[in-house]
Design brief:
Blueprint (H helix, E strand, L loop, with lengths): L1 E4 L17 H12 L4 E3 L5 H4 L5 H9 L4 H7 L5 H24 L1 E4 L20 H12 L5 E5 L6 H7 L5 E8 L12 E5 L5 H19 L3 E5 L17 H17 L4 E4 L8 H18 L2
Parallel strand pairs: 1-2, 1-3, 3-8, 4-5, 4-7, 5-6, 7-8
Helix pairs in contact: 1-10, 5-6, 8-9, 9-10
The protein binds zinc ion.
Length: about 300
Amino acid sequence: MKIFYTDHFVLPLPEGHRFPMQKYALLREAVQTLAPNSLFEAPAATDDELHLAHHKSYVERMSSGTLSAQEIRQIGFPWSPQMAERARRSTGATIAALKSALADRCGINLAGGTHHAFADHGEGFCCYNDAAVAARVVQRDCGIERVLICDLDVHQGNGTASILSGDASVFTFSMHGEKNYPVHKEKSSLDVELADGCDDDTYLATLKRHLPQIIAAFKPQAMIYLAGADPFEGDRLGRLKLTKCGLRARDTLVFETARDNALPVAVTMAGGYAHDVADIVDIHFNTVRTALHVYS
Ligand SMILES: [Zn+2]
């Protein structure tokens, strides 16, 4: 299994910025001890690839540093050359993970899951929509017709839903907090809204009811999984009450369902905002460990 990293592109964030950027390096260090020979530097997504899901003018503004102050505020990171390069690498990592999954059942991006990025703008710490780009790249390059995006980050995949609305070849499934960001939600192929305080049992039963059914009906040939760490009970932004054990059971359910259906899966980490960064890293690390176990 190939695991792609981008954490060596460090984003210069202003003092007091609350995004847990350090989680990526800590996660790679943890994965290094488990699977040292599986780690690869992520390639950069090309302009041609990004244009499959984004407006050319937006990619150009992002690349050249000519986004407006309003566009930068909406993304939530200050623009820097590292930020533009990191966004390309993170998207390239999901493309690479999905292509390697087609050959090897599963591939992992230790970042990605930037599902709040729209065709013409970014928001909520997301610049490019890696899942939408990767889905269209394998459709163009690898003879894949139908792709499932299984988004289990606690926030709705609004950018993904918007970019892929009207595209019947990509099924967008988002299971998210009803009361959570974004206030205005887009329409995915299937949105499942969860009440505040949702626990392990309710969450797992809901996922078990929907995921196998989607796979049986849509017959995807590849899947991109957003394994957000933010449904965790200790998350600052999550509002749900999943335990680490429940999140591991979620990952196991997704991977075993994919494996048993011979469905190649690319895994992305998506969000995670627990008070203690060690908890975020722990949850993401469990996702990687579970994938390695299920596909061993
Ligand atoms: Zn999130």
